[in-house]
Amino acid sequence: MLVSEEIRAAVAAGRPVVALETTIVTHGLPRPRNLEVARAAEDLLRRAGVVPATIGVVAGEPVVGLTGEQLTHLASGERVEKLSVRDLPVAVARGVDGGTTVAATAWLAHRAGIRVFATGGLGGVHRGASTTFDESADLVALAGLPITVVSAGVKSILDVPATLERLETLNVTVLGYRTDAFPGFYVTDAGVPVPARVDAPAQAAAVIRARDALGLSGAVLLANPVAAAAQLDAAEHRAVLDAALAAADAGGVTGHDTTPFLLDHVHRATEGRSLEVNTAVYLGNTALAADVAAALGAPAA
Ligand code: PSU
Ligand code: MN
């Protein structure tokens, strides 16, 4: 694993660092928006005085703090794989290029000493999982990594209530940020309440410090809804989601292809509107992650 000098120094000095994933770049967003959004997230962090740590795998080397060139390469590469935790050893042994999922990114970030991580929407329990067992490795990864992930809940393509049940089972502390409703990625409210709420970065930091002091090994998931004005229209959201799920079913799409397939279908069906929401969600989460990382660096109130 290669950790950039800048990140190594920032972690050692206790300065704020925020990790960013790359599956959203390689498999989540279409080109050229993917690279634009990845760069915008890094710029936003730098402007907030936070060191960005974009994480991915280049020629079999897990890199914490991709260079601009490496990021461009992953964003435009033809043979770039989607890598979750179980894929990392194979990717390293075979020298492949890959975007890391929330699970794999959280693992590498934690090993590099990074405490806060921003993504769009966490993976979770897929609809029909009671027969397919298709549940994202993101959930299990977060159970064993004392890191903080900022996400807009989980993608609404999933079974959201089942995902929250699993997060409870896995001892992941879920916090709603300025909301009592668990967000549904494209929409502010997925129809399920959050177990606890915080209203400021310092309050989130207090929970994170308490988790650390208790020696708990699970993640804190800070669920940050997209601004109400920016969310996808509820009726359109429902219709598009139903169509995407039916298309996946008809096409026999399964396993790790499911999430990229559904996201792509939704982006096309909404003529890019959902892409705007996806972008707003991601950058909003990155901004909140910056504030939380800064609050964690500040002395406890
Ligand atoms: N959030 C997004 N876009 C994405 C993802 C999350 O806004 O593409 C990715 C994340 O990398 C997440 C992965 O870890 O989707 C989940 O895939 P799966 O359901 O196969 O575990
Ligand atoms: Mn899966």
TrEMBL record:
Enzyme Commission number, as recorded: 4.2.1.70
Cofactor note: Binds 1 Mn(2+) ion per subunit.
Keyword list, A-Z: Glycosidase, Hydrolase, Lyase, Manganese, Metal-binding
Gene3D superfamilies according to UniProt: Indigoidine synthase domain
Keyword Metal-binding on entry: yes
UniProt binding sites for Mn(2+): 134
GO molecular function annotation: hydrolase activity, acting on glycosyl bonds
The protein's enzyme class: lyase
Residues bound to substrate: 82, 102, 136-138
Catalysed reactions listed for this entry: D-ribose 5-phosphate + uracil = psi-UMP + H2O
Active site: 21, 155
Classification via InterPro entries: Indigdn_synthA-like, PsuG
Cofactors required: Mn(2+)
Purpose of the protein: Catalyzes the reversible cleavage of pseudouridine 5'-phosphate (PsiMP) to ribose 5-phosphate and uracil. Functions biologically in the cleavage direction, as part of a pseudouridine degradation pathway.
Assembly and interaction partners: Homotrimer.
Family per record: Belongs to the pseudouridine-5'-phosphate glycosidase family.
Stated name of the protein: Pseudouridine-5'-phosphate glycosidase
The species this protein was found in: Actinomycetospora straminea
Source organism phylogeny: Bacteria, Bacillati, Actinomycetota, Actinomycetes, Pseudonocardiales
Gene this chain is encoded by: psuG
